[in-house]
Amino acid sequence: MNSQKEILCLHYYFPPLRSTAVIRNYHIACAFSSLFDKVHVITSDNHTRFPSEERTFPSNLHLQSIYTLDYRRLLAGKSKKDSHKATTKKASPFFQWLLKVQKSYPFNLFFAEGNLIYIYGAYQNAKKLIDQGQISTIYSSFGPYADHFVAYLLKRKYPDLRWIADYRDLQIEPIYRNVVLTNYQRRIEKIILSKADLVTSISDGLSKQLELNDRPTKTVLRGVELRVQEAQYEKFTISYTGSLYFDYRDPRVLFSELKSMIDSRVIEPSDLQILYAGRDGLRFSDWISEAGLSSVFFNKGMVTQDEAKTIQNRSHINLLLTSSSPELTGVLTGKVFEYFEALNPTLCLINGVYDPEFEALFSELNAGTVVYNPPISKGKMRSFILDKYQEWKLTHKVNSTLNQEIIRSSYGWKSQVEKMIG
User: Fold this and answer.
1) Residue 83's pLDDT is what?
2) How is domain 236-405 classified at the CATH fold level?
3) Which of 21, 209, 274, 408 is the most exposed place for a label (fewest CB within 10 A)?
4) What is the CATH number of domain 4-220?
């Protein structure tokens, strides 16, 4: 594809900030570098206050940091520790209501990440770049919503520019019901996106929701970069690396099944270990204890991205927890494809209704299995675990079944990003 003019990317989250939220933004910006003559990235300067890690940038990618004073910086104070908090500390109804308020317009302009200070600074710096350069396209990410606000203002001032608005998740969640005055929020979002030339999201399920804004919409999946396989753990290991979202991600049906398999001597307890890594270890540990599995459980706590990947690489089964509802299926978060990169089988446990997008993806890639709470196919989870356990007993490893040929041909970052430009 021939390179085009310049593109401006608005990314509150971007390296060197160390966060899972930067992965999509970073790889898309790098893919743009082969499609445009120059890539400009405007981001928050929060990386000066929070944990950071260096990443290499293409030579034609230019980064500009904007002063940011929002609640993350205020909560951190003099510390450089990220202010993410465990969901066990957020579970009170009042705190949940406050989270909804700060995500909702107009409160998100003042209290959310990337508030008016960031929005003003990003807008002023973007105008200078547009006035003096050859920018033809604006690309904004979500969340937070600040990047879309900036892009909306720029599109109003420069209507000839093409605006691509991307969503890692939804501003208005049918499952989590994470905003107040929902109908009003829908009207505001429709007004803002009315200026967008293309709206993109991480899955068909999210795209169907975003199509309600009457704008051209495409699904751009998270790209996959397969890793070099590592030696697996000595014990048969099932691991979960990530956070819980109150009770929307719920592994208890798995724990009950594992306890049943241990009690019936289908699995020897001395063979098994369950690993957790993330910010919600206390809640996970409580559920483990309720199931009577404390003797085989290990809580790794908060780990770096590299440490999390090592756990995924060495596990025999990676547990994926997600949710679905009649209003929203196919929530293909970055964690899905992060697990695929590890090459080991994935047990996807969906708290909700049948999810055709997950089923199709796992079937196409032979990535593992999809099960539900409440169960849809009786014995499916038990059969999958037993099959992998017996393979481990015979060979002391579990082989990858992932279709790497399809991954390489259809699921790389560049092939996904080209959908935006074509």
Assistant:
1) 47
2) Rossmann fold (3.40.50)
3) 408
4) 3.40.50.2000
